[in-house]
Design brief:
Elements lengths: L1 H21 L5 H24 L7 H22 L5 H31 L3 H18 L8
Helix pairs in contact: 2-3, 2-5, 3-4, 4-5
């Protein structure tokens, strides 16, 4: 009888810290998911900003800032990916990778197109449309609260 009480006391002592730690906030996976969702939200704001950008001489400076912001948030998503639950990691990695490829392609096209063409505003407008479509297809599909 004493042994079973002692075992029970030892088990209780062993599990109290575990339960205490489990109740002490978010897990690494939850923090990573929160980072992904925050970054996705920031990217969505930048895409919306680009869509609403009036075509003027300041437009290209503002667009550059928005694209840099998008790339910074994509980096944060990439850094959070290894900590995500395996059940969503693949979807996030795929969405991040595909969207990043689109962003890099668009910025390259804009840099080349603006330097060689007189229709810079048309190129920017087309690029923003392509970016919005890519966002919807990739990052917008990640479930966030």
């Amino acid at each position: 009888m004493k042994r079973s009480r002692r075992r029970l006391a030892l088990l209780a002592a062993a599990f109290v810290p575990v339960f205490t730690l489990a109740a002490c906030g978010e897990s690494e996976a939850e923090k990573a998911k929160a980072q992904v969702c925050h970054s996705r939200s920031e990217i969505e704001k930048s895409v919306a900003s680009l869509k609403n950008l009036p075509l003027s001489t300041d437009a290209f400076s503002t667009a550059k800032d928005d694209f840099e912001s998008i790339l910074a948030e994509l980096k944060k998503i990439s850094e959070a990916e290894p900590k995500l639950e395996p059940s969503i990691r693949g979807k996030v990695e795929s969405a991040q990778s595909e969207f990043k490829s689109t962003v890099l392609s668009i910025t390259g096209e804009l840099a080349t197109g603006i330097a060689t063409s007189g229709s810079a505003s048309k190129k920017l407008s087309d690029a923003v449309k392509k970016l919005g479509e890519s966002y919807k297809k990739t990052l917008a599909s990640i479930d966030c609260p």
